[in-house]
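[09:14] KT: can someone run the structure on this one? pasting the chain below
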Amino acid sequence: MKKQTAGRDALFEFAPQFAALNDDVLFGEVWAREAELPARDRSLITCASLMTQGVPQLEAHMKIAKENGVTKAEMVELITHLAFYTGWPKAWTAFQFAKEVFD
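[09:31] RB: done, structure tokens below
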């Protein structure tokens, strides 16, 4: 997985410790544990979690998921499945993000 710098790029001057935790611990250590759970699977889990919360970071993580090998068909199935558990409006929003990322 490529080195993550989003935290430092967006927040380093304002919240340097948070930026470092984001880039070094979350993405540098947790996401790097490929032997325990591959990045592709982590991406699916993360997208599912973010969709249930209805947060805008979902779109960025869909891009990461695509880079990690998640297919359009798999993302569509994830959203369709979760629509019944998390709510129709969240599914609509997720599909809008997915269309931008996977088309």
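[09:33] KT: thanks! Helices lie at 6-11, 16-30, 39-53, 57-67, 72-86, 88-102.
[09:34] RB: yep, looked fine to me
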